[in-house]
Batch of 2 targets.
Target 1
Amino acid sequence: MSDSKTQLALFGGPRSIEREFPRYNHIGREEMEAAQRVLQSGVLSRFLGAWDPDFYGGPEVQAFEREWEQAFKVRHAVTVNSATSGLIAALGAVGLEPGDEVIVSPWTMSASATAILVWNAIPVFADIQPDTFNLDPAAVEKAITPRTRAIMAVDIFGQAADLDALAAISRRHSLALIEDCAQAPGALYGERHAGTVADIGVYSLNYHKHIHTGEGGVCVTDDARLAERLQLIRNHAESVVGDKGVTEIDNMIGFNFRMTEIEAAIGREQLKKLPALVASRQALAARLTRGLAGLKGLQTPVTRPGNTHAYYVYPMTMDPAVTGVSRERIIEALNAEGLSVGGGYVNLHLLPMYQRRIAYGKKGYPWMGGPYGGTVDYSKGICPVAEFLHERGVMHIGMCQFDYRPGDMDLLAATFRKVWASLGAL
Ligand SMILES: Cc1ncc(COP(=O)(O)O)c(C=O)c1O
């Protein structure tokens, strides 16, 4: 029998965590002064959707891009108004044709796949690795058909995917490789930054990320031709290509994906803070991992040799056969203790859009009625690892949600230990 102190909050005992953690917030005086500087100039954006010096945006946007290139050791950075826009621009830039297939992880935020549909191309979901949650290269290889044109790797939770293996597959099959590194700014893949390994990488600067500009994103590439195509898609390509003398006009469709001067000025300050913010997430994660050691059936995050993990999220897998308790019940108990723990991603192929194949209009386009002649499968069961993890196997703690102090990790670990000590009662 447990005494009253160790009794789970779920059963009326005292909560392990009594207080609210402060919100993760790294907007300070520097960002306020930067925004003020732009406001005083009166030039809140200087983009012009025509072939003109202002086609490239104003001084803050251009300075931010040069600084991003330096920080990430990459030749070209192209800012956009969100990572969603950046992914759309990236897929257009690599020359997708309507009806092409693009292989993507089902274990990601929905925009990774909808960006494919925007070009009337077809997302094909390949399964993930059970320990890193990133695309499994073997599953990718199996999913390749004569229609495959690109692979979208997602550096999920803050760790780079198996990029060398995916790049080798891409080269072997003449595919483009895009890296959705929305969650992994500051993570390393060997010597390189996550995001800079694929043909194009796309970072997010939305409010929830390590660093942010409210909304925003950055595309990076070492390829000058792709950089130009990204800039064109960002900014009303169709009205620019003629005067700019661009002859390769496929996918040169007009969007306004432009970042404002205020966002760029804030982004420049945020970028300076990124290394310390990532390092502090890593220190927090290491302390939490030490605190969780030895809990039966619980696997703490796995980082591949050579990788560093940016810990946008601290993911754990749980084996219900070992704990003897469902993931849902354990999460319920942890939440009752005052600890915010979530489950996994809904697998994208199981969303109504894919299950019913209703995207543009009601008649099944682009799967039907267009140039696509393939037989992509979205049935439950096509990605057993991702499906199991979502339904039963994963728990996660958001590391850019609260402004945790190092000692807080001991409290989090003690909360897990309290729940694990009472698994039998759950
Ligand atoms: C993996 C991933 N891809 C894409 C996005 C889209 O980013 P944004 O909100 O900047 O459009 C997100 C944002 O949550 C994400 O986590």
Target 2
Amino acid sequence: MSSAPNTKKEKNCGPHTELIANEHTRVTRCACGTVHVHVLSKGLSLQIQDEEFRFLVNSFSAAQRVIDYTESDVSEIRESNDGVLN
Ligand SMILES: [Zn+2]
């Protein structure tokens, strides 16, 4: 057998620690520091560096706050805050 050596570009990946798992999402963290996000309903899988993951999560939660804010009584907010988002 003269098969080519198995040259993996990736670093050695250790065992994954499961951070959360529910019916929608499963998030694991590899020993190498990569966070794996599985969006089960979309069949989507992301591999993100842990620092990047933090930014992503902050962005998601900020976006969710805006959604919640927008879905509350907007006209009332505009009257009291003159439409300015804090
Ligand atoms: Zn890894």
